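During the second half of the funding period, the structural biology subgroup turned its attention to how the target accommodates small molecules. The most pressing case was pyridoxal-5'-phosphate, which had performed well in the primary screen but for which no bound structure existed. We therefore specified the complex as follows and requested a full 3D prediction, including the ligand pose.
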Amino acid sequence: MSIAENIKNIKNIIEDDINLIAVSKTKPFKDIEEAYNAGIRNFGENKVQELSSKMEICKHKDIRWHLIGHLQRNKVKYIVGKVYLIHSLDSVRLLNEIEKQYKSNGEIANVLIQINIGRDGNKTGLLIEDLDELISLCEKCDNVKVKGLMAIIPIGDEKQCRKYFKEMKTLFDKLKRNTFKNIEMKYLSMGMTGDYKIAIEEGSNMVRIGEGVFGKRNYNINKEED
Ligand SMILES: *Cc1c(COP(=O)(O)O)cnc(C)c1O
């Protein structure tokens, strides 16, 4: 199926109030163009280098770029003022670097806190027990605004997926009931090609779909350093 058909099918399934992010990592710019022409305005990339080079050739001013992958501190300076939302704030050290770089450029960073909800040792993301500390430090920032939470859940069967999505929704709702400076629980970013329908049923309002939009990825074609 074509990219336009994939997008049409997904839009038929999800409600208008769900934010669809088309994850274009490893895909050529012409695919982004095709998705844009089919109405997509939110694109997700997981690597700063690839994101920057695609942004450079992109002429559309109304595209919102999302950095969805792990963000190394030494790469923050390359994205200042360029991305709509950073989905992967996962440590105090990264927060400090984002605050520093955005402050020196007079820009505001909109971020999601990425939670390692499956407590997977191989995955990035903050453990829930470290959340209070990060939140209190976000409250002291001048140039960082938290807009919600993000999670990549461990691979598993439907029952296990639901369990993790439910835990994220519970956490999201709990934070939403509180008032913190600089923190607004607007977006709950969870759900990918294989599980976005379940994620939405469990309360996600932002899904990141790659292969479901662009077709299978071939990592050998576009191997690059993180
Ligand atoms: C690649 C990626 C996605 C999209 O994955 P698909 O299975 O292709 O939908 C979503 N989120 C993150 C963080 C990713 O790196």
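Two results from this model are relevant to the next phase. The mean pLDDT is 96. The pocket of pyridoxal-5'-phosphate is lined by residues 23, 25, 46, 68-69, 152, 192-194, 208-212 (CB under 6 Å).
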